[in-house]
Amino acid sequence: MHEQSLVQALLDLIEEYAGRYGAKKICRVRLSCGRVSGIEPACLRFAFAVQSQGTVADGAHLELDLLPVRIYCFACEQEIQDEAYHAVCPRCRGSAVVLVGGTEELKLIDMDAE
Ligand SMILES: [Zn+2]
Fold this sequence. Notes:
This protein has two helices and six strands. With 114 residues, it is α+β, with helices and mostly antiparallel strands. Zinc ion (ZN) binds at residues 73, 75-76, 89, 91-92, 94.
């Protein structure tokens, strides 16, 4: 499962930060990823809940910001936000579009320690 390795990398990063700043417990972790990054929020939450057990982030509240899908339409000559990527422009229904946002990988934004 894709999410498991992402969460493992995330926990390694959290442990490293916690160690560096002498934090005993992380109570909140804020992440962001693109809506069409292939990351399943429910899977991510589940993996985090399981894999964080016994780490400094055990029981931490996970906040996930889903970055919107952004497409550029060559017919409308502008960038448009959409809920999902359907390879058509939501405005003119044309197919001369490219995906320019929403594919961002998982990123650690910030976290709160106790
Ligand atoms: Zn268009």
